[in-house]
Amino acid sequence: MKVLRTKKWIGASSIHLFFWAFTVASLIPFILVFMVSISSEDSILQNGYSLFPSQISFAAYQFLFHDFSEIAKAYGVTILTTLVGTVVSLLITALFAYPLSRPELPFRRTISFYIFFTMLFGGGMVPWYITYVNMFDLKNTIFAMIIPNLLLSAFNVLLMRSFFASTIPESVVESATIDGASELKIFFKIVVPLSLPIMATIGLFNTLSYWNDWYNCMLFIDKPELYNIQYLMTKTLTNIQYLLMKSNSSAQVGDLLAKMPRETVRMALAIVGIAPLMFAYPFFQKYYISGITTGAVKG
Question: Which CATH code is given to the segment(s) 67-285?
Fold first, then answer.
């Protein structure tokens, strides 16, 4: 018995040690980016990237935040589009997937096929762009970064449909129907509480997609006050002088360009763009192990 317990302890300890090592290894790239962002530009040019910077400097962040209002506006646009887009997109996906999971829906296989078809073929960028600009008039509006991504992926619809079909007990829906509950009441009072794991998963996918979206901003937005943080970062990475455009003195611009950190600014931009997402993961993670364990069928 003692030998068996020892073997179990060694096995469990080995598994825990492996996952701890894997977790630390996964954090190394993020730590490296952060360390480079707080290093001096000269040390990076001389010694390369290092987890232990020889010279600590916050010049990259001082350079980025010299005009904080611009970054604050970009953050505001990104947060607004991410919150609204994620909630509305998740709702549309769920309302689309749930009927497809019901066996009594007519032509549900045909509809599912057309959804799957969109994963293989698209209409092309030109008609897609013309539709949103000419028909919906989304040019230079905040909706241009929300509406095109509302149904982010047909894969999300099929994934949620499969979850509903395999997880929601048929007896629960039938009992609610007999009690006189409407379809919407069944969906919001029964289906959604039992589907928190898939809701959290698709919600996280949507959050990442909206937060990292710079392409729609590039296509539809010409006004700097409507730039989101990712597009602002992209413009800064491709043209590092973008943040200095408000300077009036050419001599001042030349002096700033001579002293401007370059490699460290790239890393600081990555930290500025990814840091808020770190708060999204704990919010969604707590729902992964809940929801389905609450149960609805008793007896």
Answer: 1.10.3720.10
**Tell me: the pLDDT tens digits for 37-59?**
888 877 777 777 878 887 888 87
Return the residue matching tokens 């010049």: 59
Residue type, 36: V
Q: Are 211 and 284 in contact (CB under 8 A)?
A: no
Taking Cα atoms as reference points, which of 243, 247, 272, 279 lies closest to residue 61?
Answer: 272
Indicate if the pLDDT at residue 292 is higher than 50.
Answer: no
Show the tokens assigned to 218.
Answer: 């590039």
pLDDT tens digits, one per residue of 239-250:
665 545 544 445
Q: Is the pLDDT of residue 293 over 50?
A: no
Q: What are the residues facing 56 on neighbouring strands? A: 39
- pLDDT of 248: 45
| Domain span(s) for CATH 1.10.3720.10 in the chain | 67-285
Whether the pLDDT of residue 297 is over 50: the answer is no
Distances in whole angstroms, Cα of residue 298 to Cα of each of 33, 81, 169, 211, 295: 51, 41, 11, 41, 8
Three-state DSSP class for 150?
Answer: coil
Beta-ladder partners of 39: 56
State the Cα–Cα distance between residues 242 and 202, nearest whole angstrom: 35
Task: Check residue 65 and report its DSSP letter.
Answer: G
The answer to whether the CB of 142 falls within 8 A of the CB of 136 is: no
